[in-house]
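Retro notes
What went well: the complex prediction finally ran end to end.
Inputs used:
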Amino acid sequence: MTQQHEKLSAFMDGELDDSGFVDSIKNDSESLAKWRSYHVIRSGLRKEASVMPEFDITAQVAAALDQEPTVLAPKSKWKSLPVVNKVVPFLRQSGQLAVAASVAAAVILGVQQVNQQPAAEEPFTTFQTPVIPGMPQTGMAPVSLEQSNIVPNNRAGDSDALLQKRRQINALLADHEQQLKLKQAEEQSQRAAESEPNQP
Amino acid sequence: MQAFFDVKQRTARAVRLLFLTTLISAAPAVIYAQEDSQREPERITEPNLSVAEAPRQNLSGLEWLERLAQINRTSNFEVSFVLTRAGQEMTPYLWRHAVLEDGLEAEQLNLQNGPGQEMIRLGNVVSVFEPDVQPYSIYASAISGPLPSDLLYNPTALTDAYQFITIGRTRVSGRAAQQLRIVSRDNKRYNYQAWLDEETGMLLKLDMVDLQGSLLEQIQVTAVNVSEQPSPYFSRINPQALPGAVAMTPKPRQHQWEVKFLPVGMEEIKRETRRLAMTGQVVEYKLFSDGMVDVSVYVQPAQDSLDSDVVLRHSTNTFLSLTNGQVQITIIGKVPPQTAYEIAHSIGAAGE
């Protein structure tokens, strides 16, 4: 008997390849009870136990199932109608989409707020009336250098003059940048011409 | 007998299991070892610098900058840096330098954001590739980028205008650094603070500050890689495919005016008469430089000039325009507005 129990234990651990052993347990009610209680004990040891041995209700459940009448025509519900069935998940999904979209919008709003420049209207900083002796303070007019910036068209004459002014300032600034790029070019080309007379 | 076999079988399983677990736990270690060997070639290798042997604590400011110039001219490196200006977005750059097999110096500066701008220097020819402009090449011994070329290659040229003061050791970009101040001798220009890597001598950070000490412009290095071999990028450049260098023959012009006040160490490097590209106005032009900053002086007839005086700051440039009788005088450059004003007011008829 003890050998039988040991074999049962080994079988549960998957260490027994004797196919005839399964049949021998099936026909032995004591072994079957042992088999069940072994499983319960193992679950208990592994802290998986949801069923205590004294609460073994499998037999009662099986009996209750046997007594239950078979339902042949189940009561139809509005959810099981084909159209509703298709629309409802769609509605539910779109609701989720809306939530996701609103989250994305919030994120974009947040980023824009973080990225906002303190003074977007003013593309550059004019000096806070620097104290220069002998220089008229009123003569310093702030002029925007942004070419893409649109001048408000409330006074046609003024905006023309302003545009003209901007064009001139931009021309000078662009020329300055260009000169810096070409700064070295002249003396170096002289040297290059001296070392390579064939150079154009 | 049966029990004996059971025990034997179980022992065998246990041994197999043990072996498996050791394998699994050893596997990550093997992977890490592989990663380490892959990382190896990327490490910064200390180049054989004769200066490096000298005691670094006793180096003067100029000696530090000479060390910087030496490594900038002779080593292969790849530097990433960002340029930040007050009130503007930062712009990232990639800067590579190499000495090729035939001794030719090669340099590349690439603007990393937007459509970009690429400048390639082979020897004394700089090729410029930028959006909306036909590629062109000019003769120049250095790329004119955000870093002043005299600071990088020829610090002795700066000694007339600036003095170099060592401040001490700090940590920049995760590396031990030596801090220097670059101060103009007459307090008429913006000042600088530079941080140089103690080990390699490379530039790690450069600040431009105004006379009150507030930051105007900052260049912060984010990665430095000094290597034995030139970057493979330079082997992909086909010198034949670069645009031919345009020689700029200077046409010296005699102007009827001259600038009588200049900050200490600033010199005239160019004078000419030409038309502005955008408006077609004829201007008389002089360019002054002290190595760190350049100042342009424009003189043009007053009739097609701005109708009022203007002072403004465009990024870090000061723009000052005065109408003085019959002429309009414009000063543009990275100098304080007071200095621009002094320069503008010192302009008078030549020969007086």
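What we learned: Helices of chain A lie at 2-12, 20-26, 29-45, 58-67, 82-115, 156-181, 185-195.
What to try next: split runs per interface for comparison.
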